[in-house]
Amino acid sequence: MPEPYRGALSRQPQRPLVVVDDPEAVELTGPVFGAADVTAIDSDLTRQHPGQPLGQRITVSGRVVDRTGRPVHGQLVEIWQANAAGRYAHRRDQHHAPLDPNFTGAGRCLTDDQGHYRFTTIRPGAYPWGEHSNSWRPAHIHFSLFGTAFTQRLVTQMYFPGDPLLPLDPIWCGVPDADRQRLVAAYDPELSVPGRALGYRWDIVLDGGPR
Amino acid sequence: MTLEPTPSQTIGPYFGHALPHPAGGRIAPTGHPDTVTVHGRVLDGCGAPVDDALLEFWQPAPDGSRTGAPGSLRRDPVDGTAVGRDGVAFTGFGRVATGADGGYVVRTLRPGGVPYLSVCVFARGLLGNLFTRAYLSQAADPLLSSLDARRRATLIAVPERTGVHRFDVRLRGDGEHEETVFLAFR
Ligand SMILES: [Fe+2]
After folding, report:
1. Can A127 be counted among the known catalytic residues?
2. What are B28-69's pLDDT values in tens digits?
3. Catalytic residue list contains A117
4. A residues 136-165 near B, CB within 8 Å?
5. Which residues contact B156 (CB under 8 A, 6 or more apart)?
6. What is the distance in angstroms between the Cα of A1 and the nearest Cα belonging to chain B?
7. Which residues of B touch A19 (CB under 8 A)?
């Protein structure tokens, strides 16, 4: 088990958070998004360029709910990820792996009435990072979520089942034991598209929110 | 039923091609005469600029409405490119990435009913997001009045000239400068 990732010390507050216990706090409401904020193709990361991206085509879907199990409907889900070779279409990523001209690796969708989201993409590659010598991030997809309250705002990462890099990853291992597995998607044959894509299910529970 | 929440994870360094959107800091409708500019820098505990932070803003409309409106990150339905706001609707939501100098700018309208903008901070090296508030005035407010003067000052968006306020976010104190007050909600 690696030393868990604790982040950059110089960027982390030293003082305790100040608790706001105010039923009128603006943060108990939140922004909304609508049909004009997304197009149908935004949720299919394999169709954003003239050609097909390289890599294993997958679907990733699940439900977004709050802690009481209520679906978060009509809300924005955004994802971003590396390409199949483990490289981001981002200037600062200088990993010596090829960019894919047919893959940007960013997508978005709105959840449906039951809180479901669904993306079609390719399985991202693992990539090296500078945490320690020969450290590799397991394949992951970054997720950004909104609830009904700004307090529910969540940015996190989804992992793939059975990845041998997981127990070696300081970032995944930085999450307490009991919570870690909830960041790992499940392979779900029901979500696979015959002859086309492997299906993964990952449900998300947003914290906080209006009482 | 109480479900365990999904843990948060760092936003990492590579969100820039995915999350920021055109004119994400231009919350005020185009050319609105009451536009207020809020700008500043995000700084770390050494006073160094944080050049890969993402700031989000959420606020009531000037009439006090807290429902927001869609359209913060409109896409072109033909080619899918991001076209940004329509310049008319007040969505109440802003999103800006910091520049190489750690700087950001938002242009908005004063929120109705409260004196503050809600601010959510994401950055590489943070395990989760941080919440704070940028107060555009020091009107009576339960949070401000609960803090001592030095701490309270970190939440004030200082007027520089008419319609322009400065609000720096200091992620960690450096001994000389007070660290920004960050919030948890019950
Ligand atoms: Fe990543």
Report:
1. yes
2. 999 999 999 999 999 999 999 999 999 999 999 999 999 999
3. no
4. 142, 144, 150-151, 153-157
5. B135, B138, B167
6. 18
7. 183-186
With left for phi above 0 and alpha for psi between -120 and 50, is residue B11 left, alpha or beta?
alpha
> Tens digit of pLDDT for each residue in B122-135?
999 999 999 999 99
- Residue A142 known to be catalytic: yes
Asked, for residue B88, whether it belongs to a domain, the answer is: yes
Quote the number of domains for chain B.
1
- Put simply, the answer to whether A13 touches B92 (Cβ < 8 Å) is no
Query: What is the pLDDT at residue A210?
Result: 57
> What is the token pair recorded at B87?
């310049």
Task: With respect to residue B166, please indicate whether it lies within any of the assigned structural domains.
Answer: yes
- Among A108, A140, A159, A200, the active-site one is A140
Output the domain CATH number for residue B166.
2.60.130.10
Is the ipTM above a cut-off of 0.90? Answer: yes
Element (H, E) at A159: strand A154-159
What whole-number distance in Å separates Cα of residue A119 and Cα of residue A198?
A: 12
